[in-house]
Design brief:
With about 210 residues, this protein is of the alpha/beta class. It has helices spanning about 20-25, 50-55, 75-85, 100-105, 150-165, 185-190, 200, and strands at about 5-10, 35-40, 65-70, 85-90, 110-115, 135-140, 170-175, 195. The protein has an 8-stranded parallel sheet with strand order 1-8-7-6-5-4-3-2. α2 (about 50-55) packs parallel to α3 (about 75-85) and α5 (about 150-165) packs parallel to α6. The protein starts with a strand and ends in an 8-residue tail after the last helix. It binds D-xylitol-5-phosphate and zinc ion.
Length: about 210
């Protein structure tokens, strides 16, 4: 088993003191920063966008894994790349031409992730698995931090790991939503290479021990 990495989600950070949030990420085991972008349409809330990410970029050299929970991500990837994203992950459910967008993100020189909500079957991404660098398996319905992990989604992670082995592919598997100190071992065992955590990390309950 490869050593998993932790990507704390900034959504649960104190936005009045981002410098401390980044310090906590860097000293408490974070190897990447998960940056949740919400547009108030694909999901009900609005978080932050390109100018804020550009400013945050000055606070850390860790890779920024930008999780776009937006409609029409194809209109925004250039500006998020410009703002300082290293990885750009978009939702299969948010756009029609996923294949084209994956190519475009790669043309921008960025790593590309595809994400699926709990109700989207793994089969719907089978054709594009050879072309992505990351699959972000949502274990909650996206839109809010602090929700409870949906158990059947963990099984999707283990199935995805098996598919990756069978097809000889090498994308990373990331888990996002409701990961805490009680279930982190389970999601790692299922096959997560990258563990996203917001509320459990920033409340200090999830200690990274991998
Ligand atoms: C949910 C976001 C998550 C969220 C995770 O829509 O994509 O990244 O911040 O937060 P927790 O770990 O609190 O579920
Ligand atoms: Zn996220």
């Amino acid at each position: 088993m490869n050593k998993p990495i932790l990507a704390p989600s900034l959504l649960s950070a104190d936005f009045s003191d981002l410098a401390s949030a980044f310090k906590m990420i860097e000293t408490q085991g974070g190897s990447a920063v998960h940056v949740d972008v919400m547009d108030g349409a694909f999901v009900p809330q609005i978080s932050y966008g390109q100018p804020v990410i550009k400013s945050m970029r000055k606070l850390s050299d860790l890779p920024f894994d930008v999780h776009l929970m937006v409609e029409k991500p194809e209109l925004m990837v250039d500006s998020f790349a410009e703002a300082g994203a290293d990885w750009i992950t978009f939702h299969l459910e948010s756009t029609v031409h996923a294949d084209r967008l994956i190519n475009h993100i790669h043309e921008l020189g960025k790593k590309c992730g595809i994400s699926i909500v709990p109700s989207t079957p793994l089969e719907s991404i089978s054709e594009i698995l050879p072309f992505v660098d990351l699959v972000l398996v949502m274990t909650v319905n996206p839109g809010f931090g602090g929700q409870k992990l949906i158990p059947y989604c963990v099984e999707k992670i283990s199935r995805l790991k098996k598919i990756r082995e069978e097809k000889g592919l090498d994308f990373k598997i990331s888990v996002d939503g409701g990961v805490n100190e009680n279930n982190v071992d389970e999601v790692v065992k299922a096959g997560s290479d990258i563990v996203v955590s917001g509320s459990a990390f920033f409340s200090g309950k999830l200690k990274w021990e991998y």
